[in-house]
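PROTEIN DESIGN WORKSHEET
SECTION A - STRUCTURE
LENGTH: 183
C-ALPHA CELLS:
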C-alpha cells in the first residue's frame, strides 16, 4: 500500500484556520505539511521573552520584534519562529504576515527541536530568501548563525559561545552572544 499525503498551500491553510479547524491546536505549515508544534517549556519561554525584549530596546522603532507569530513564505510554509525581526510596516500586517522581503532576521530557541531548527527550518528559511537565521541552542549554551545566502542555501555557518555579533541588517548594533545564550 502506498501512503498518500495531502499537501497544503498557504491559501488552503488560511482557509482552514478561518473555518476553525485548528482552533485548539498549536500548528505550523512547513513545505505543505501541517506540523504540531512542541509544547513550550519554561527555559524556552524565558529565553524567548528576554531576548525579544533586548532586541526591542536595541532597535526601538527601526524594526518590529514579533515573537511566536507566523510569517508567510512562498514554499507553502507558514512557520511561527520564536523571534522574527521585521520591517515596521504597521497596519500592513493586518493584511498579511511578514513575507521574506519584510524580514531582517529570524531567531529560534532550541531545546527539544534542535535537529529540526538546524535542518528542516534552516532549509525552509534559506529557500524562502531569509538573509540571516540564528539558532540558540539552550542546552549547549551556543549560538549558530547562518548567513551568506546563495541559490537558496546558507553558505556560512558560525557557532559562537562568546563575543558580540551585529545583525546583517543593523551593522551598527552589537549583540552580546552571552545575552542570547544566558539572558
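SECTION B - SEQUENCE
RESIDUE ASSIGNMENT:
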Amino acid at each position: 500500500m502506498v501512503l498518500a499525503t495531502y499537501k497544503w498551500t498557504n491559501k488552503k491553510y488560511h482557509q482552514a484556520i478561518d473555518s476553525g479547524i485548528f482552533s485548539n491546536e498549536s500548528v505550523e505549515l512547513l513545505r505543505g505539511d501541517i506540523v504540531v508544534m512542541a509544547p513550550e517549556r519554561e527555559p524556552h519561554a524565558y529565553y524567548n521573552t528576554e531576548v525579544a525584549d533586548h532586541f526591542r530596546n536595541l532597535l526601538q522603532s527601526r524594526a518590529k520584534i514579533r515573537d511566536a507569530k507566523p510569517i508567510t513564505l512562498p514554499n507553502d510554509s507558514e512557520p511561527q519562529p520564536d523571534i522574527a525581526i521585521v520591517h515596521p510596516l504597521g497596519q500592513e500586517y493586518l493584511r498579511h504576515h511578514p513575507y521574506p522581503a519584510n524580514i531582517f532576521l529570524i531567531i529560534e530557541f532550541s531545546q527539544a527541536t534542535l535537529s529540526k531548527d538546524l535542518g528542516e527550518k534552516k532549509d525552509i528559511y534559506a529557500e524562502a530568501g531569509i538573509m540571516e537565521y540564528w539558532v540558540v541552542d539552550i542546552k549547549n549554551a551556543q549560538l549558530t548563525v547562518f548567513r551568506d545566502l546563495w541559490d537558496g542555501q546558507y553558505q556560512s555557518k558560525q557557532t559562537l559561545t562568546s563575543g558580540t555579533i551585529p545583525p546583517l541588517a543593523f551593522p551598527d548594533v552589537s549583540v552580546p552572544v552571552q545575552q542570547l545564550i544566558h539572558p
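SECTION C - NOTES
The mean pLDDT is 94.
Strands lie at 27-30, 33-36, 64-67, 83-86, 103-110, 133-137, 142-150, 153-160, 164-165, 175-176.
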